[in-house]
Amino acid sequence: MNGLYDSQRAMRNMRKAAMQRGVVAVLDVGSSKIACLVLRFDGTDKLAAMDGVGPMAGQTGFRVIGAATTRSRGVRFGEISAMQETERAIRTAVQAAQKMAQIRVDHVIACFSGAEPRSYGLDGAIDLEGHVVTEQDVARALAACDLPDYGEGREVVHAQPVNFALDHRSGLGDPRGQMGQQLTCDMHMLTVDAAAVENLLHCVKRCDLELAGIASSSYVSGLSALVEDEQELGAACIDMGGGATGLSIFMKKHMIYADAVRMGGEHVTGDISMGLQVPTATAERIKTFYGGVVATGMDDREMIELEGDTGDWEHDRRTVSRAELIGIMRPRVEEILEEVRARLDAAGFEYLPSQQIVLTGGGSQIPGLDGLASRILGQQVRLGRPMRVHGLPQAATGPGFASAVGMCLFATHPQDEWWDFDLPVERYPVRSLRRAVRWFRDNW
Fold it and tell me: In terms of pTM, does the model score above 0.70?
């Protein structure tokens, strides 16, 4: 844990330094596309307002000055599988965004889907003896949380305090400056497969860039697609990507659960490709133009031409009805939604006061998906688009860019995490000894 704590602290410092210089890039490494946005900050005075425990404080102070996307290569299920191909794709996206912004970027903040996320709810309590709560007390309360045995080969991506309680008063966002006898803290911790994080880190380094932060795309999609009331009252964000479908649950403006299903839009394309015996590129085009999940009486008569180039005239000039296409797509979409339903049930989603579900991501644009999802997942389902941010091109405002826009919000106003606090002496004995030596040298 020590190495991770130190590296995350170093990344936070790098992000602050990049923001003070005025430019940082965000990178969404997905299975179907890699998106890069370059952000410019209006002023550094906003940095002073970010030293609080609690949720992000709005999205002022930056604008998008460069945006680019490229087809993703070497990424499967949201994880890097071919390093050189992914490196080439990231370089292409970053260079195109830099060209549009007319500025060079050294620091990027990246997000990724997949990597088998697991959520843990932790709590810790400390005695205050009646004095005012300080930053050090908050750090002690976070350090008092018992770490679960999350296994070898896992890394912590997020560790956020989601609730504080002073004596009998719960639901406090920031307890500092208040008085009480006992401080209790609830923390949400998200772990992912360490190899996926290390591969991403290594890939960004190979592109001659510095990584100034990482985030789970389930989390950042929720930040951009859920409106303020939904984040406050309780809602689930389902981000249907190409290779994986991310799932996050928010409550009181904090993420309290995240998971991922290793299926997405590319699996629907694969089914069409096999079912109709057409190349993947043709299957993707057919899915985009004619796809759907709800068949009507008209669909038997609407014929789709499969324009092939195999050289076999009969094979290349086939037609299929739209009803047949829907018959291929619907079972896979239902399977993805059933998997999501199982994850929501495991998280206890039905016990939340509000059970709003928001679908976003590129795969959410299939016509009729909201109706099918409301039957499988529950009544309150809506399609979500990412929040509008300054300077974002019209082409990047669709549901497929929910993660990229969420990364902008995460980069500028990150919620406090465990590594933003100086954890106390007993948690990190090596550093504390060094501090004690320095104290003796300065005071004697």
Answer: yes
